[in-house]
Amino acid sequence: MLAAPSGLGIEVGDVVIHDPEDPPDAHPGDLVLLIGARGRAAAGAIRAAGRSGAAAVAVKNGSPVVNVAADSAIALIEVGHEARWEQVEALARGVVDAARAGGEADSGEVLGDLFSLAQTIATLTGGLVSIEDTASRVLAYSRAGDEVDELRRLSILGREGPERYLAMLREWGIYQRLRAGEGIVRIDERPDLGIRRRIAAGIHAGSQPLGTIWVQEGAHPLTESAEIALLGASRALAPQLIRHRTLPSPELRLREDLLAGLLDGRLEVESVADDIGADPGKPAVVLGFSLPRDRAATDRQLRRAELVHLITVHTAAYRRSALVSVIGGRVYALLPDLPEHAETRILALAKEIVGTAQRHLDVRVRAALGGVVPRLSDAAASRGDADRVLATMARGHGTADVASLADVRAEVLLSEVLAFLGDQPRIRDPRLLELIAHDAEHGGILVPAVLAYLDAFGDVRRAARELNIHPNTVRYRVRRAAGVSGIDLDDPAQRILTQLLLRL
């Protein structure tokens, strides 16, 4: 602690990461971690944090800016040069999150929402509510009076269900019924065991169980609408528990932010390299992974979180400084510090990840290898290559689940040429527009014949087989199309332009 102009009794409400290149985004009570600037370079960000009412700023080499912090009425914490920012953030956020979880019902972000929902459910059902995950760990509970039974008391004190009671519930088949699907499970009162009457409902994402809501009857009977309210609560809680399960740890969250900032060009390469322990002058590559969109949104979100963990484990085993992040629904992995001729090993790694996802997550994953770039600062270009390959694979080009730019280069370049033509209407041949309009009014048979003829390099019999019509029919339709449009298909320039624009 280098400066504390307002004393040490300042409440910290959140921990935020800030890069000086970004607009100020601190709020009152924030502990701001300045990861992109040291020493005097951090002065502007410190002043901005002070104006926003932030509680404190943490920076490396803070001595040159002590006076700036004092003038800005904000506490200044110096972080040792050897400390890694993800460790600092994990430590600070762990303290803040622990305080939130033990605070009032409306405090916190994820757990706070669950405590608030538990209290709402208690009001609607007239009972005492607790929310648990699939391992019977208590995530949140409603306020209670003296009518708490032994099972609830021990569960809340231990933050998980006591084993002897859990064994009885398993023996009675309660958990099997809760996991089986949506619906209300009733548990009768057992005074001899210290158990009052309860109702419970499983929380599910599709067929996957996420947790359970328990409602214990207190001194008064449950409300007439208690079961309806509990059923609605079990459905409403699914997104909250998905969020709770998929929220990354503070360390993972920082590493995700570092990769996103690097690929978006928001962070300096030297800053990222320093924090992950990578050499910015060595080659790097970005792998891109995509999930199919044929699943429900909640299930896809859970699968993506599991995929992130799977990719993180595999890539960290290959490169200690690997980074993994989700950007725009895709998962990206950055592999820095590559040795020479690493492409073969990276391809094998991608295939291993895809195969493991298929076997253990029961989901088909596509993987794309960006080009190996000579230095870390070119990682965004490698990410661009991976995106182009994934887009091409999504259009159905190629049957493999793993591909590099070299594997689909022709399809990628063709799609980019077509995209350019699509954005430049002034360079389209109006004769082809007339052909397309004419064909649309007369059965739509000429354009497919011309395209098949051009794709077959003028081989009429091959085009006929593709269209499943007689070769003479192909000849007639091609001549008819040339007559309608005025295009000379014997001219190489007109021929290639026709092929491109008709594909568009």
Task: Write a structural description.
The protein has 504 residues and is an alpha/beta fold. The chain folds into 4 domains: 14-101, no CATH class; 107-246, Beta-Lactamase; 250-417, Alpha-Beta Plaits (2-Layer Sandwich), CATH 3.30.70.270; 424-502, Arc Repressor Mutant, subunit A (Orthogonal Bundle), CATH 1.10.10. The chain has helices at 43-52, 66-71, 85-101, 110-125, 150-158, 163-171, 174-180, 226-236, 238-246, 250-263, 269-276, 297-318, 343-361, 379-394, 409-423, 430-441, 446-455, 460-467, 471-485, 492-503, and strands spanning 14-18, 30-38, 56-60, 75-79, 128-133, 138-141, 184-187, 198-205, 208-216, 285-290, 323-327, 330-335, 366-369, 402-404. Helix 2 (66-71) links the parallel strand 3 (56-60) and strand 4. Helix 4 (110-125) runs antiparallel to helix 8 and helix 17 (446-455) packs across helix 18 (460-467). The longest helix is centred in the middle third of the chain and has 22 residues, at 297-318. It is extended. The termini are far apart. Mean pLDDT is 82; it is low at 102-112.
